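In this supplementary section we document a worked example of the pipeline. Step one takes a protein sequence of length 251 as its only input; no multiple sequence alignment statistics are reported here. Step two produces a three-dimensional model, which step three serialises into structure tokens for compact storage. The input and output of this example are shown verbatim.
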Amino acid sequence: MKKKSKSLLSLENITVSFEGFLALNDLNLSLKKGELRAVIGPNGAGKTTFLDVITGKVKPNKGNVFFKGKSLIGRKEHKIARLGVGRKFQSPRVFENLTVKENLEISVSSPKSPLNLINKNIKTEQIEEIDHLMKIVNLSNKKNAKAGSLSHGQKQWLEIAMLVGQKPDLMLVDEPVAGLTDEETDLTADLLKSLSGDNTVVVIDHDMEFIRRLDSNVSVLNQGTVLCEGTMDTIQNDKKVIDVYLGRPEE
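The serialised model returned by step three reads:
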């Protein structure tokens, strides 16, 4: 009998209730190391709460979350982050008064002590890492520009680079292409695809063309539970998904 592959992340029977409203309802979902997974669903499906449970922002009423074999339930957010869970929120969170390079210096510095950051005790390998991060997000020519002067898409890429610089084992990326141009959206999809394998990446978004370009497995959430999982072709032809989320084309 073939041994079941061990999951990097496993959510088991997760239920979250907010004053009687079931944000998550007996949710089960697992991820393998190096996997790229898209998570979609209608508004109110539980996508943000799903991320909040993983990162420790919300404690479930029932169920368990295992990451690298350890339960995350009851752990504080910063301790979960130190275990290797990184999150990018919907709106870019960068230090707008610092340059691109300085933002990445903060990301790669270890330990992140105020003294280290003030004195800029950056090691040679960290300088090389910063150069590499700027290259993968096409910001090398902006390294001395203030982050606040970047376009919305460039700020998204900078934050993704900052997340990669922290070297998390799991990257949670929430709506990375909201407000981006078509070209920026395509580049972001290619960037996230290139990061998987070395990283395990979860992407939440509503843009179906972007999700298709990711060429990953997709989990569809609805009413706090997994409605369907599979390739984008499988998802788009699933009757339940069409009825509750995608809708039918007008005849």
